[in-house]
Design brief:
By secondary structure, the protein is an alpha/beta fold. Helices cover 32% and strands 11% of the residues. α5 links the parallel β3 (155-159) and β4. The two termini are 33 Å apart.
Length: 359
């Protein structure tokens, strides 16, 4: 991911949607910040969710009725597409305090609210978004939950909970009723060796619970973590597992055959899915990102379009690129896709996996 400046006015859904870039390298930040800013490792492990964070996750707050500058109800005809991966945060630190170890200076851009996201995505025909919990809040998913409650026709969420908490399975069930459809997991969270980074009873509890609650597990990983994901897929065949950002292949400018093969080999598990996006960081050439076509084709050939879904990774996609350029790669530039493939990538896979009602 990248870090950017922001010229939107907080709370204005109709504000400008092009954000100026900073001098920070987007590719370097994808390699570092995905494991840090967006991955809970900048400030070490967050505080345990057994206290205030867990209570806030479980309770409604007054902020649910305070969402400003509301937008019109969703029109599937006018806004058919789904963004499977975007982050939001707010400068209101009184209502939504940061996790221990984070400060306001860490929030870059200073604001990317739900309303700013909708102002960014709706002009491209994207009416629904799977929100990804931002690491600034640690295990306290309250802001994301409040925005799901404020815009229930538009948002679902991917939360972050503590696998070493008092009862992660029970927390999953509670969050299912609040629009949480997946949980983000990454190797840095528990700092176990990479060859057994999922070998923990908390993960066993989560992976066992997920089929019951119809929730998925979403992995923020590099290719070296894929063998453990493969093991989890085989051990929990009823659980849906999602690899974010094409396993970050290409973030260092290299498209290694072994890495691509490892990601494609994971497809032998019918419960494995892939998010195809974060093009701003993976493409050496930049928009329209046609240099990523061979990688994307191999992944779609392996998984099939029904197990692949497009993601923007906003707000980082709009640092020095545009939202439109991300979705347009799938919509217009990959000649090996037919119209049905595009429907699955841009809508139906995410719809069926993430937007189905809780049991």
């Amino acid at each position: 991911m990248g870090i950017e400046s922001n010229d939107l006015e907080p709370g204005r859904p109709d504000g400008p949607t092009t954000l100026p870039s900073t001098t920070i390298s987007r590719r370097n930040l994808m390699g570092a910040a995905l494991a840090g800013v967006a991955g809970l490792s900048l400030a070490g492990r967050p505080r345990r969710a057994g206290g205030a964070a867990q209570e806030r996750n479980a309770a409604r707050t007054d902020a649910q009725v305070d969402a400003q500058a509301r937008v019109a109800p969703l029109s599937i005809e006018d806004e058919p597409y789904i963004d499977a991966h975007s982050h939001i945060w707010t400068p209101d630190l009184d209502r939504y305090p940061l996790a221990e170890g984070f400060t306001r200076d860490d929030m870059q851009p200073p604001s990317f609210t739900a309303e700013e996201l909708l102002a960014t995505c709706r002009p491209s025909g994207v009416g629904r978004v799977n929100l990804i919990q931002m690491s600034y809040y640690g295990f306290d998913n309250t802001y994301m939950l409040d925005m799901i409650a404020a815009y229930p026709d538009r948002f679902v969420g991917t939360a972050i909970i503590d696998p070493e908490g008092r009862d992660p399975a029970a927390e999953m069930a509670a969050l299912a009723t609040k629009g949480v459809r997946a949980f983000r997991v990454q190797p840095q969270l528990l700092n176990l060796p990479i060859d057994r980074w999922l070998d923990h009873p908390g993960y066993d509890a989560m992976f066992s619970k997920a089929p019951e609650t119809r929730q998925a597990i979403s992995f923020l990983i590099d290719p070296d973590a894929l063998p453990e994901v493969d093991r989890a897929c085989r051990a929990y065949p009823e659980t849906a597992f999602i690899v974010d950002h094409l396993a970050r292949i290409g973030v260092d400018g290299q498209f290694r055959s072994a890495d691509i093969a490892a990601l494609c080999d994971l497809s032998r598990n019918p419960n494995a899915y892939v998010k195809i996006g974060a093009f701003y960081a993976l493409s050496p050439m930049g928009p329209p990102y046609r240099d990523l076509a061979p990688l994307i084709r191999r992944v779609i050939d392996a998984y099939g379009p029904r197990r692949c879904m497009w993601e923007s990774d906003c707000p980082f996609q709009v640092v020095d690129h545009s939202y439109e350029s991300s979705i347009d790669l799938i919509r217009s530039h990959l000649d090996f896709l037919d119209d049905d493939d595009r429907r699955w990538l841009l809508t139906r896979t995410a719809e069926e996996l993430l937007f189905r009602p809780a049991p």
